Amino acid sequence: MKASLPYKIGRPLFYWFFKIILGLKVEGLNNVPRKGGLIIAPNHRSNYDPPIIGSVINFRPVYFLAKKGLFINKTVSAVLKSVNAIPVDTEKPGVEVMKKFINLLKNGEAVIVFPEGRRSLTNEFLPPEPGVGYLSIKTGAPIVPTLIIGTHESMLNHFLRKSPLFVKFGKPIYPDKEKPTIKNSKTLSEKTMEEIKSLM
Prior knowledge:
It is built from 7 helices and 7 strands. By secondary structure, it is of the alpha/beta class. A 7-stranded mixed sheet has the order 1-7-6-2-5-3-4, sandwiched between helices. Helix 1 packs across helix 2 (49-56), helix 4 runs parallel beside helix 5 (131-139) and helix 5 (131-139) packs across helix 7.
C-alpha cells in the first residue's frame, strides 16, 4: 500500500525533529527489508517510540498501534489514521488487533509490534509476550529486532545533548515452518528479546 500524503509529508518532518533537534543516531537501517510483510520489534519506553521508528524507515510505510483515547474526534482520528495509526483499547486489545496485523502482514506491509506488549515504566526490559512470535509464525513475516535507547528521558535532555537518543536495527529473524502454538510463539518472542538486548 502506498503511503498517504500526510504520511509522506509528516515522516521527513518527524525525522528532522528527532535527528536535528534531539540528536537521534541510527544504525543498521540496511537490515530492514524493503518489501514484503515485516515486523519491526522494538523495546518500548515511550509513546513516541512508534513515530521515531516510522520516521527513520524512509523507504516504506509502517503501521503501528495507538491508544483508542487519542482518537478524540473525527478530525484527529482522520489525521492519526492517515499516518497509519491503528486504534486499540490498550486495556483489552483482543483478537481484533491480531487480525488487523495479520491482514497487513499478509498484504506485504510493515508493522511495529512491541515484544514486551506494553511500555516499561522503569527503563528495564520486560518479559516478552507471545504476540510477536505468533504473528511471525502465522504469516511467515520476518522480525527485525530493534533497540531504542533514550526515549524514557525528557526531550530537553536530548536537545541539550545530555542523553543519547539511539535506534539500532538488528538482522531479520525468520520463523521456522511450525505451528503458531503458544509455546512456539513465546520461544520466538524470547529469541527476539534476546536479540534486542544483544544490540546494546
